[in-house]
């Protein structure tokens, strides 16, 4: 008599793109959890080449037409934070959720806090076109990162004893930090944030999403060209 066979691994497909910070969140979590998956590249609207044909499957199942979207077998989810949570429920091995309920509650609070306070000024820097607008976004981001440093007081990780979904949420900032510096973020980083970024850079998830110099150059080049356009054409 043979033992029961293990259920087949789910078939996972991510619809996303490396330049989209929200897609990077999901890519980091998939890699950190060692979840094998396919990637269907769907560039964000702002960088989509002329003539690009959006897969019909994406059009049908992404309600807002925005990446990331993920398919697990024949189930779909869109929007990065709900995707991260759903993957924890849907696929078991190597969860990123902390074990302790208090840490798990902290993780969710931090995911929402990062989304609300870190991402808007980050995006404001590379989409900004006027110097005062860019400087304002940089100052707001600096204050947000000071707050992040305070949240890291006495901690190696944001929630629990290792990388969590909170790390997945903030990593897209870290991987594009060199580009942000070139585009106008000239503030000193809080030491605890630097140490946290270094710890994130040692993870399997980071290895899957870290930017090359060419990728950094591409984001910077796109932003610089946008800034150089006449105001009426932006």
Question: Which key features would you list for this structure?
Answer:
2 domains, alpha+beta, globular, four-stranded mixed β-sheet, 53% helix, 7% strand, 4 strands, Glutaredoxin, 234 residues, 11 helices, Glutathione S-transferase Yfyf (Class Pi), Chain A, domain 2, single chain
List the helices and strands and how they pair.
Layout: E1 12-16, H1 21-32, E2 38-41, H2 56-61, E3 69-72, E4 75-78, H3 80-90, H4 101-117, H5 119-127, H6 131-151, H7 165-175, H8 177-182, H9 191-200, H10 204-209, H11 213-228
Parallel strand pairs: 1-2
Antiparallel strand pairs: 1-3, 3-4
Helix pairs in contact: 1-3, 1-7, 4-7, 5-6
* CATH-derived architecture of the largest domain: Up-down Bundle
**Beta-strand percentage range:** 5-15%
**Given the structure, what is the number of helices?**
11
CATH class of the largest domain: Mainly Alpha
Main sheet characteristics? 4 strands, mixed
